[in-house]
Amino acid sequence: MTPALIDDTTLYAVLAPFAAAVVAPFLTRWFKHNAAWLLAIVPALIFLHFTGFVEPVSKGESFVAAKAWAPSYGVNFSVYVDGLSTLFALLISGIGTFIILYAGGYLKGHPQQGRFFSFLLMFMGSMLGLVLGNNLISLFIFWELTSITSFLLIGFDHLRAASRRAALQALVVTGGGGLALLAGFILIISVTGEIEMSVLLASPDIIKDTTLYVPIFFLVLGGAFTKSAQFPFHFWLPNAMEAPTPVSAYLHSATMVKAGVYLLMRMHPLLGGTELWTTVLPLFGGITLLVGTILAVRQTDLKLMLAYTTVASLGLLVMLTGTSQEKALEGAVLYLLAHSLFKGALFMVAGTIDHEAGTRDITKLGGLRSAMPITFAAACLAALSMAGLPPFIGFIAKEVLYYGTWGWLELGLPITITAVIGNALMLVIAAAVAIKPFLGPKVETPKHAHEGPVLLFAGPVFLSVTGLGLALIAHTTGELFIGPTLSSLLGKTTQIELHLLPTSINAPLLLSLVTIGLGIALFTQIDRLRGLIGSVLTAIGWGPDKGFDQFVAGIVGLSWRITRLLQSGKMQTYMMLTFIFTGAAVLLPGFLTDSLPAMPKMPDYRFYEWGILLIAFFGLIAVLVANTRLTAIVSLGIQGFAVALIFMMFGAPDLSFTQFMVETLSVVILALVMTRLNLSPSDHRHGLAAIVTGIVAIGVGLGLTLTLLAITQQPFDSRLSDFFAQFSRSIAHGRNIVNVIIVDFRGFDTLGEIAVVVLAGLCVLALIRVRTKPEKPIEKPKTVAPPTPAQTGEAH
């Protein structure tokens, strides 16, 4: 179905958070503690706007809106609204509303709260632009904006070295993946000739049928895997827990880290279903699921436990998306929705515990149920959904995904076993987060624990209850949200039927019972299991996180060596490198592309023309054999005078006069400068240096000669010459066309050239006045290993 054109309101909805970000610091200063309520109105209104698309999208409709951005490049600020983008927009704006409120309570009284709100709202707008982006280039721009704004949020507490390191690590990893994604998008545009996602989705096989499918696949995967923390790029996400908890709850569970999953789902009709897709994605997704859950069990910090299960959940989503099986994709969409709700709630619960009790270490927590009853209730509801127990949306998602993986003939069994183990370990973490801090004997905490204000518990309560409510109305949830999103993934309209409870005893139900039983058994041995995993990780030692530090240290060392080589402080080196690259630039393309110009025939010169050439030739010999620099400079002027004589013979007396003046002044000025500088009189080179210098000089000269020959052999386009000849008199009131061009038609160019000459004169003056100082040796920088998080599990 062709997307319907809508008005620009949706475009303004994407830009609204950026506008709110501008005023956020001022509102925080003026309204103090009430600023969060005012700022939360913006995402709430955006949420209400996108609820208006739910019904038409559920009927299979889609919509586009666009504004010209860079029309000469075909780049538009355009949005594409269908089931997938609507679901993501609702999650971003809906959860974002409660994150703004939560941040108002969590950072209450913080001197930089306004700045934090500003960063958070900019990130919200970037995510909305990403998931709604229709134009590939504008989508990439918003993709990179999410990396930049998350860098600002992760490094918000910039006085702490750990925060700075985590922010830099996230930026390097996701930014590097973003460059790969840009290359993939450029290839897509090149091979298809299309730049709008809606147009590409109308022809889903357009990329699969090209010979560049494989590089496009891996480049897009590079962007998705780095953003969604897939193994081996998973290490940046747990380290990003150095950010304040509102950032963790929003960026690293509900929104940013799912950008990669969104991209894979969006590109599924274009890239999915191939043997490469159904091999690579399930493999890496399954590894990420197991690695994330195992490392989560190792942790005792609430945020790190949730962070590693986020890594695992992203792996599960990638694994399910990689199957390209309809029922597995349905399970992926359901789990996407469920995870956003329960993980956002649990992160806010962890932050509330830390805020009110003074610690996030579960070994130092216990008995908080009576002190924090509302937070405890929210934690239980969210944890039950995370554990996949009825009657929550997480249970329905687990049932459907088991149905999809079990029925996949090719790799159904290993994928199902991986999902069962991963879900069992996630049940362990869910139980640990909900039970350990709240039940058992009361433990003395650094702060007197009590229930937080409404700003802190409103979000967890709403999200956890929503996870329950969506399950109770499972049929409606399927019709309005899951079915339209699944249709976007499959590229065709699909109707689904969701039920809260299984209608019969089947394989998915039995697998759920196995998952629950295994999870409970592992939870009873969680301390022993944590010690065992810790011992294994200690024995392994090295991991991607440590590898990142080694990579950065290697880059620093390499850059120092290159800088030491190229920036030696010697003018001779700089000039040599300049000429080498100039010669390569003008000479190599012709040889590599076999497009060298034809050599012209020797013209029939007159005797005086031969005389001028002989003058130039003997001037060249004089330069080469000159014993002093002063003699070489004077001899060099002979070349310029010979060129001036050529201009005069071919009817350009004004140009010839200018050349005479320039050459005369150049020789005089250079001679005066040489007398002031303390330089050796001779500049002869011997041996290897003479050979290298000669090769470079001949290469540059040959390259420029061939370039000029290639230009002169092109058909002459006289339109510009005709324009100047026609209008020099009538418009500029001058008969000398050359003067009119220089003064009138290219007046600003001439002004720029004069500025360059003035700048060069100032540089010459500085050289004349310089006083030589003894050189100090350049010391190699000491490589200091950046601080690493204290948790041993994060090294893996």
UniProtKB/TrEMBL annotation:
Keyword Plastid in annotation: no
Alphabetized UniProt keyword annotations: Antiport, Cell membrane, Ion transport, Membrane, Transmembrane, Transmembrane helix, Transport
Keyword Transport included in the entry's annotation: yes
Residues in NADH-Ubiquinone oxidoreductase (complex I) chain 5 N-terminal domain copies: 72-117
One matching Pfam family: Proton_antipo_N
GO annotations of cellular component type: plasma membrane
Positions of the MrpA C-terminal/MbhE domain: 695-781
Record NCBIfam families: PRK12647.1
The protein's name: Multiple resistance and pH homeostasis protein A
Gene: mrpA
